[in-house]
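Technical note accompanying the year-one report. For the benefit of new consortium partners, we illustrate the data format agreed upon in the data management plan: each record pairs a sequence with a structure-token string. No post-processing was applied to the example shown here.
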Amino acid sequence: MSAASPQILIVDNDRLARLIAMMLEGEETDVAFDGTVALDKIHGATPDVIIADVDVPGSGIRLAELVGISPEFQKIPVILTSVSPTTDTIIKARNAGASSYLAKPFRPSEIRSRIETVTATSSSDESATQDPIPNPFDQQEDDEFVTRVRAI
């Protein structure tokens, strides 16, 4: 893992991948629009973190599984995202080896915080178990911005 700024691979549809990359301005990002292209990019230049939507073509959950079973790439933290998280999806993400799960919409500070957490955990203790994936249904948001976005 790089000590300064992590290399981040974003796997989502074109519009959202570019939006997330803009949220992470100043970070080193690359985008892929499906799981197959993401795997090719991982083999070409190993990222420090992968952010993938669960519904991306090729499945973000399947991508997390494949990264997790690869001896070469299993240390790469995977943050899965979804616009419609369900308990079943969160359980599947956890079972696939996802390091974290984030419900859309999210603020830039939320994704940056998750990246910091998973990279710190990954680099500080290579033998550490996964961070627990918080259930987005249990989160109480007092943030006016999030409340307004969800009302749309």
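Partners are asked to follow this layout when depositing records. The longest strand covers residues 7-11.
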